[in-house]
Amino acid sequence: MSKRPLCHLSTLGLVVGLIFFVTTGCCLITFPNYNRLTLKLNAVPDARGLSSNWLPYFNSGGKQDYSIFYDNKSGATNPRRNLPTGFGKRTNLVELAKKLNLTVLVDLLEKTKLDNTLDHEGPFTLFAPTNEAFANRPSYCDNVPLKDLLKYHVTRKVHLSKDLKNNELLWTLLSYRELRMNIYKNGKVLTASGRHIIKPDNMASNGALHILKDVICSVYIGSAVLEINRCPAYSILSKAVNVSGLYSILDDFGPFTVFAPTDEAFNKLPPETLNFLLKNATALRDVLLYHVVPEVWYIAGLEDGQLLKTSQGTKLKVTESAQGVKVNDAMIGLPDAAVSNGVVHSINSVLLPPSYSQEQVVFNKIRPKKI
């Protein structure tokens, strides 16, 4: 019997083995983290698939009222795909954050294990708060699960400042949440969900890093009217919106700014004024539309003396002082609550259009224009 076929098989095996060795070697040279990436492939969540099983790092000191539904889909992206020229050859986003002395952010990424994604996956854009930003975060920030909070600071793909457009929405790693980008003051102020970007376009091997002055804490669930309805401080406003028939408008795509009076603000009105408004949908609608501006204005974009045209047709005047920011005579208390269709600012007084007075409202001498 001829032994030639065995020789052929041996030769074929040698060739296959050589190809496998060369191919694997090339992969390891091209992607130094190839083995790590392969092992972690099924554990990397995509923009829609998140796990809610984690413990918050911050001690909230109170109950959390934050609730989101999650799915469990997973996926991974090519760590070197579609990166603009000029990006760092070796420094990944986590290493870059360390070099920029963003030590609190790095610590939190490590505690939530997100560093295992941001150190080699991508491409991503990381919106990175400073150490001071975390130290000065508002108290309600601690009610948001930490991993959700951090995922909301990361978007898929690379987004450089020169390419961003006003009101552009960027999908984040948090399920169904987008960051809203705004450009104010002739391009001098760029914000991500209202937080000022103070140092943009720091480049890493797997994306870009923009440094933020503040932490993005308002991780919304839905539209302006949904957020108002789920907040106990706005129970009267919520009722007024439904009575006036404005629910569908404030639940629409927008975008717009809502100056939202708290219950304390409504209770400053004489009882007869509030009762009249709640029983007269046309007048109430006119008053509420005076609280809505059909543009997105975060605090960072407002200027002293600025006039904002409302959906009611007349204007609000912005005043800045050491005490804070006012619209007309109402002080903005809790600012910059991002929602899916714009932003909500809490105010401490109800705004009445210029032609109104409380006496006119009570005695029905007003004739609000029809909307």
UniProtKB/TrEMBL annotation:
InterPro entries registered for this protein in UniProt = Adhesion/Biosynth-related, FAS1_dom_sf, FAS1_domain
Origin: domain of life: Eukaryota
What SUPFAM superfamilies is this protein classified in?
Answer: FAS1 domain (SSF82153)
Transmembrane intervals: 12-31
Q: Does the keyword Transmembrane helix apply?
A: yes
Q: List each copy of the FAS1 domain by range.
A: 89-216, 221-351
What are the entry keywords? Answer: Membrane, Transmembrane, Transmembrane helix
Q: Could you tell me what this protein is called?
A: Transforming growth factor-beta-induced protein ig-h3-like isoform X2
Organism classification: Eukaryota, Metazoa, Ecdysozoa, Arthropoda, Chelicerata
